[in-house]
Amino acid sequence: DTGVSQDPRHKITKRGQNVTFRCDPISEHNRLYWYRQTLGQGPEFLTYFQNEAQLEKSRLLSDRFSAERPKGSFSTLEIQRTEQGDSAMYLCASSLAGYSNQPQHFGDGTRLSIL
Amino acid sequence: AQSVTQLGSHVSVSEGALVLLRCNYSSSVPPYLFWYVQYPNQGLQLLLKYTTGATLVKGINGFEAEFKKSETSFHLTKPSAHMSDAAEYFCAVSRRGTSYGKLTFGQGTILTVHP
After folding, report:
1. pLDDT in tens, A40-92
2. Environment class of residue B78 by beta-carbon count within 10 Å: exposed (0-12), middle (13-18) or buried (19+)?
3. Which residues 37-66 of B are in CB contact (within 8 Å) with A?
């Protein structure tokens, strides 16, 4: 169990640029979640995959955001035309299938700063 | 909709003193309940969870929490604080009886431990 891995750990970009983050879940976990955490707040749910299927998206996920999980393994989160308000920590988590009592294991996050 | 309220955004204790972090939830059906800890620039680590059965649950690092349905609470305690407990703590819930596992978090409580 190597844990959930996220890359990069930090990303600094100019407003209007596109960015992409990657998450590698724990290998046997078929559920993968993305959350966003702003300073002083708890994480907020963005989207959820079971295997390769994206099953739920939050209203927080505007049309500038897109997430994929090809082949049900790693996932990417892309933000197009970044805005100042996108500055946050983006957290990825994974869990086993089953009911919603399965604990989620979090990566260390990608911190995005928009200049 | 579910919501989580953590009373006190900052709690300060002396080393060796009791730690009490408060969490109340709002949900039409008692949810699954979780406590996570977050150290600076890191992801979240699961401390403990309540799903069913005994309402007093023990977690890692000497923490425990008690589910009180009548009070809609899930407060986190530790009998004796250690300097290494200084971190931010998040209470979270997920909807019971579904296959969706998305978590709804409270705003977090920063715990400071004084020598």
Report:
1. 899 999 999 999 999 989 988 889 999 999 988 999 999 999 999 999 999 99
2. buried
3. 41-46, 49, 51-52
